[in-house]
Design a protein that fits this description.
- By secondary structure, this protein is α/β, with parallel strands linked by helices.
- Helix content is 30%, strand content 22%.
- It contains eleven helices and 18 strands.
- Strands 3-2-7-16-17-18 form a six-stranded mixed β-sheet.
- β9, α3 (126-135) and β10 (143-146) form a beta-alpha-beta unit.
- The model is unreliable at 1-12 (pLDDT under 50).
Length: 404
């Protein structure tokens, strides 16, 4: 990371630059001592000639490092403590306690090189509050794309976050309320989940018509919809309802995992983003043995889905459990490299493709003129060794260096 004195010196310059041995622009590796010029919070220039900069330009030279767009985790829960298995206690928690925890987790994300997060489930719309403080520059943190409390059946998955709604009229009203509060994306729990008792992950929580009502109202207000969908039928219904994204996409049945390749074909044809929550720590116990087997089968399915053209976005579901701490995304990118994706594809899945999934492709996920100056630098060449993502040399968020 940057030393304190150097950080203050550089941040005092409205126009400055960062140089390294190479850069990954979100799509491909570029070599030749690239120089990225930053003005305010945006990238003002990218010089690939290797020529010396002007004498009056302050330059942070990182040597044998690679510049990348800041990583984007499209599925996190900043309010969730990964070590607390009883998430339901949040139902009675005061806002100050929750926000304090969310700020701590947001800083963990930045430290890991994640400069943008999409929060897909908070309580009392607190992620929107944090989003607005970061956007206003009142605090330094990752950019937050916020869904608010996910829409779920009464007593359904993550009911304690406050998004319960039953029936077409109720879900339509819930979407309207979320839009009025200013959410960036609507999250709906098409199926049950692993961490909330009552509805199994294979069980559908909403009918196809109810899901269609969610997408109809959200799209009328210009908001995308992403659906939590573990179960095979819930996935099919969500796709038919016109969702923009599927989270988990597990194809769980009561007895195991049974992928429906017809549904995958529909996902590919519609260009639906698949939030593959494949980031977790490589050690420790994540789930019960029978669930671990299902997760392994799901990974194999993702490999085939990629081969068939699905847009797999590497994300984490950070906060969901002990093996999913905040900032775990680089482990998912590494795992993607084991599923048949090239290192370039794995990196794109958490930069340029993730920016598309989050509706930020016009200013995130690339190193290009006019884009946000969200950058990270890692030692060596991640296109050769993805493990270099764990050796971060600098994090720049909105043109300011982060001291982690």
């Amino acid at each position: 990371m940057i030393a304190n004195g150097e950080q203050q010196h550089i941040q005092g310059q409205r126009i400055w630059a960062v140089r390294a041995a190479r850069l990954f622009d979100g799509y491909a590796l570029r070599v030749g001592r690239p120089l990225v010029v930053i003005e305010g919070s945006r990238i003002a220039g990218v010089d690939m000639t290797g020529a010396p900069p002007s004498a009056d330009l302050r330059v942070l030279d990182l040597g044998d490092a690679t510049l990348l767009p800041g990583l984007i985790d499209s599925h996190v829960h900043l309010a969730f403590d990964p070590d607390d298995r009883s998430k339901q206690t949040m139902a009675d928690e005061d806002d100050h306690t929750t926000l304090t925890r969310m700020r701590f987790h947001a800083e963990q994300q930045l430290r890991a090189g994640v400069t943008t997060v999409r929060d897909l489930g908070d309580r009392r719309f607190l992620a929107l509050s944090l989003r607005d403080r970061y956007t206003a520059g009142m605090e330094m943190g990752p950019e937050v794309v916020a869904a608010g409390p996910p829409i779920t059946r009464t007593g359904g998955h993550c009911w304690y976050l406050g998004g319960e709604a039953d029936g077409i009229a109720a879900v339509e009203a819930a979407v309207g309320q979320h839009v009025a509060r200013g959410v960036d994306v609507v999250k709906v729990m098409a199926t049950g989940g692993v961490t909330t008792p009552g509805w199994g992950p294979h069980q559908s929580q909403y009918t196809r018509d109810e899901l269609a009502a969610v997408t109809r109202i959200a799209h009328a207000h210009g908001r995308p919809v992403t659906a939590h969908a573990h179960g095979r039928q819930g996935m099919a219904d969500a796709v038919a309802a016109g969702v923009d994204g599927l989270e988990h996409a597990s194809f769980f049945t009561e007895g195991g995992v049974e992928p429906d390749w017809k549904t995958v074909g529909a996902v590919v044809e519609a260009g639906i983003f698949v939030g593959a929550t494949e980031a977790w720590l490589p050690t420790g116990s994540m789930v019960a043995p029978h669930m671990a087997e299902r997760v392994e089968q799901r990974s194999a399915n993702f490999a085939r889905m990629h081969r068939e053209g699905a847009r797999l976005v590497c994300c984490s579901d950070a906060g969901a459990g002990p093996r999913k701490p905040h900032g775990v995304l680089p482990y998912g990118i590494l795992h993607f490299g084991s599923l048949g994706l090239t290192n370039t594809e794995a990196l794109a899945s958490a930069t340029s493709l993730a920016a598309q999934a989050c509706g930020l492709a016009d200013r995130k996920g690339r190193i290009a003129v006019g884009y946000d100056a969200d950058l990270i630098a890692v030692a060596g060449n991640p296109l050769q060794h993805l493990e270099t993502l764990f050796d971060i040399r600098a994090v720049i968020r909105a043109g300011r260096t982060f001291q982690g």
